[in-house]
Amino acid sequence: MDTNALLDLWLMFRREHNNCSVDRMLCRPQFRNEFVAEARQATGVDDEETILWTLVGLRKRKRLPRVGT
Q1: What residue segments make up the domains of the chain, in order of their start?
Q2: Is residue 69 scored above 60 in pLDDT?
Q3: Which among 51, 67, 59 has a CA at the least distance from the CA of 17?
Q4: How confident is the model over 8-63, as pLDDT tens digits?
Q5: Stated pTM of the model
Q6: For residues 5-39, b (16+ Cβ closer than 10 Å) or e, as one string?
Q7: Which H or E element spans position 23?
Q8: Exposed, middle or buried, 51 (CB in 10 Å: 0-12/13-18/19+)?
């Protein structure tokens, strides 16, 4: 998976959604569905679970900026 494309998409998504956190996006079906649809196009990966686990992995490795920064 192109993690740089996923990271760029996440940063844009977060800006467009009032500094939304990964947890909030995961728990809000509307946000999650929107993000996954955009991520499928940006990364070429169709599997929702792969997309979301990769995003969580980026967060765990501290590659995502913290909310509020």
Answers
A1: 3-60
A2: no
A3: 67
A4: 999 999 999 999 999 999 999 999 999 999 999 999 999 999 999 999 999 999 99
A5: 0.91
A6: ebbebbeebbeebeebebeebeeeeeebeebbebb
A7: helix 22-27
A8: buried
